[in-house]
Amino acid sequence: MVAMGATGSITDVPGLRVGQRQKNDGGWLSGVTVVLPPPGTVGSVDVRGGGPGTHETDALDPTTLVPTVDAVVLTGGSAYGLVSAHGAQRWCEEQGRGFEVQGGVVPIVPAAAIFDIGRGGDFSARPDAEMGYEAAAAAGAEKEGHDVERGNVGAGTGAVIGRGKFKGGVGTASVTLENGVVVGALAVVNALGLPFTAPGEPGTDPGPQLNTTLVVVATNAALDPAECKRTASAAHAGLARALNPSHTLADGDTVFCLATGAGTLDRSTEAARQVSLITLQSAAADVVRLAILDGIASAEAVTTAAGTFEAYRF
Predict the structure, then answer these.
(1) I need a labelling partner for 250 at 20 to 30 A (CA). Which of 43, 47, 94, 265 fits?
(2) What's the total number of domains in the chain?
(3) What single string gives the DSSP state of each residue in 95-146?
(4) Which residues form the domain of 145?
(5) pLDDT tens by residue, 121-170
(6) Would you report the helix, strand and coil content of the chain in percent, each value rounded to 5?
(7) Predicted confidence (pLDDT) per residue in 62-102, tens digit
(8) Can you tell me the distance from the alpha carbon of 82 to that of 112, in angstroms, rounded to the nearest whole number?
């Protein structure tokens, strides 16, 4: 049995905070979303799209030195927007958050970007380090368990779906399992596909587009880096259930997984460990699907210099 979380957002995972900054005038239609976990959070990532734009994801491989993540940055601006991670990293350093080295700390701040360049009319209007800093500071200023703004905000400001016809956006969801483990997700939906339709139905005709769905899955369970990696992999199933097509050559679909370690799983026997992980990972896929649908449902119709985008209703 599962139950929806208190806010129905990723911040139902204790200690998680989200900050967002965006611009939607003067040629802009882009922004940044920062997911800020509590110190000591373990993380990993699984990139499935054929056109990813990412930063520092290699550091999240389970075989690398540092198992923890200090912030995750989701940004517009394609590869240019990845510089926003530098601003979030600077904010983390000021807070003393990071991997301790002689003389200071090095914050581990992976990032991933969607392609929204030019959707507000100005190709050069894209997130920079200052916007990343402001989004991280906004996350740090939030209270425990705050609700998350959805729709055309943060990295979802310029997001579209269905080959650019409909608006996408930021969505989030959460569930609480019987054992008290909370699983939440936040998605930035900028997809080539639409909410699931059969092949050949409207919205699935071939066409040149640059697309990406970015997801952060979080849980209060204690997971090691390899288990985080497997959870991120399992969560991609939710993306495929929600959007058709998905994981294409033109998508940069990326799922991060964060585990705060405040809760425990039943590891009393090997069989119990496997059941616990399978249950959690199944929930992760379900909550990702819900977060993606929430992002689409929350999107608003937007008119820009580049054209008019409709809100998708399903």
Answers:
(1) 43
(2) 1
(3) TT-SEEETTEEE----EEE---TTTTS-TT----HHHHHHHHHHHHHSPTT-
(4) 2-311
(5) 999 999 999 999 999 999 999 999 999 999 999 999 999 998 888 999 99
(6) 25, 30, 45
(7) 999 999 999 999 999 999 999 999 999 999 999 999 999 99
(8) 7
